[in-house]
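Progress note, sequence design subtask.
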């Protein structure tokens, strides 16, 4: 809504100003300052959330992985997605699932990351994540496996594909597949 959008814009302006001030401190790294400014558990303005529509729009922006304001907006967008209520989580997961069809790698990356933050509430996106797991390169496969692990037992339909990763030539992929299967729990053991 309009009030949330105004609060978000004011928050971003304040964060950028605080970041500029903090960067004048010798040895203060940009990433550390930005993480402090946007850490929801410790930041005094943690009650400010980006409206869901704005968060989804931000995650669809291929430039969201660049440094500066766009990156800060991406972090806040992900935090906002993680904070959606159960009542709207299904609709948000459906929107994020549609992001997985984007041609841009980083946009798909954002969608996968946000689905992981929804956890078990992203169950409906598991088939789309399985498709992504089968077609992308190794770093994206790792990202998808992490997300399936965050979804947990409700990602049980991914078990056959994850089992195939136990035979992967790279040890890291085998280890990550085993961890993800462990996060899925008994459904993985039964397979």
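Output:
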């Amino acid at each position: 809504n309009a009030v949330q959008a105004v609060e978000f814009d004011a928050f971003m302006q304040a964060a950028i100003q605080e970041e500029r001030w903090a960067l004048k401190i010798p040895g203060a790294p940009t990433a550390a300052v930005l993480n402090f400014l946007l850490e929801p558990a410790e930041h005094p303005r943690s009650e400010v959330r980006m409206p869901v529509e704005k968060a989804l729009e931000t995650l669809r922006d291929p430039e969201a992985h660049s440094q500066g304001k766009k990156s800060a907006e991406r972090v806040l967008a992900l935090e906002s997605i993680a904070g959606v209520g159960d009542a709207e989580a299904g609709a948000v997961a459906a929107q994020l699932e549609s992001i997985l069809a984007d041609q841009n790698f980083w946009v798909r990356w954002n969608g996968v990351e946000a689905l992981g933050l929804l956890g078990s509430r992203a169950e409906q996106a598991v088939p789309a994540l399985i498709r992504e797991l089968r077609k992308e390169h190794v770093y994206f496969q790792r990202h998808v496996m992490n997300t399936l692990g965050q979804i947990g037992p409700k990602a049980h339909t991914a078990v056959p594909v994850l089992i195939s990763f136990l035979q992967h030539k790279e040890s890291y992929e085998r280890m990550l597949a085993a961890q993800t299967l462990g996060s899925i729990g008994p459904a993985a053991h039964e397979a």
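The longest helix spans residues 2-23. Work on this subtask will continue into the next period as scheduled.
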